[in-house]
């Protein structure tokens, strides 16, 4: 429900708000079980927040919101890394981060046979894949013919909020995504949401419950995120302009080659053709052939 007065809730995708919400283990386990679509028997029942010294450091410092070690109902353990920020070369970076998290376990004196699989969850406010890819997508390493999975080191899960229709709530995963996308513009949770963890998340986001220090940290995080988005947009615009200029330069060079070809058919000397068009001797030889 939209409101014309000041919003009641903080934006849960803000880093400070996200961390405040999901320091509550019950809420975080509910979110993970929902997004990962874990069925009874495989649901996460324990999680541990990994301290910074046990998590890999990347270029530019820490890149993830949470690094977690989890255990499911079968007793299997694995590591979950949660990402929220879109960066340049994002898909390459996210694979680098996932691989680094997997490899960094060796630094903790673990044996190869004891290495835990890594699941990297990215929650993005935009779209990143083609329209035919669903708003929650799962990327695993599968054998090409049988489509079976034998390699479990890293799995990637992408949540594209830009694709999610905030009005459609069919399950708990949709309800969590609705919270992420719409809470900052609402004055109460939708009637379709009954999950007590999500209702509790709405309550946690109410502005009057935050201290002045928490509010200041939230504002600083918002400003920093806007600055990062501006730099990313600026970088994409620069890349686009570079591409346009490269295309224009390629077009100009093709015109030079065509002019050189005409000069050659007219019987002009090599020296005049090269000086008049600026092409190289090698390019002129190709034209002659």
Structural class: alpha/beta
- In total, the number of domains comes to 2
Q: What integer value in Å does the Rg equal?
A: 26 Å
SSE pattern, N- to C-terminal: HHEEEHEEEHHHHH
Number of strand segments: 6
Indicate the mean pLDDT: 84
Low-confidence stretches: 53-62
Q: Looking across the biggest beta sheet, what order are the strands in?
A: 1-2-3-4-6-5
Please state roughly what percent of the residues sit in beta strands, choosing from under 5%, 5-15%, 15-25%, 25-35%, 35-45% or over 45%: 5-15%
Shape: elongated
Distance between the termini: 71 Å
Fraction of residues in helices?
40-55%
Explain this structure.
The protein has 289 residues and is an alpha/beta fold. It folds into two domains: 15-210, no CATH class; 246-288. Helix content is 42%, strand content 13%. It is built from eight helices and six strands; from the N terminus they run ααβββαβββααααα. It has a six-stranded mixed sheet. α6 runs antiparallel to α7 (270-277) and α6 crosses α8 (281-288). The model is unreliable at 53-62 (pLDDT under 50).
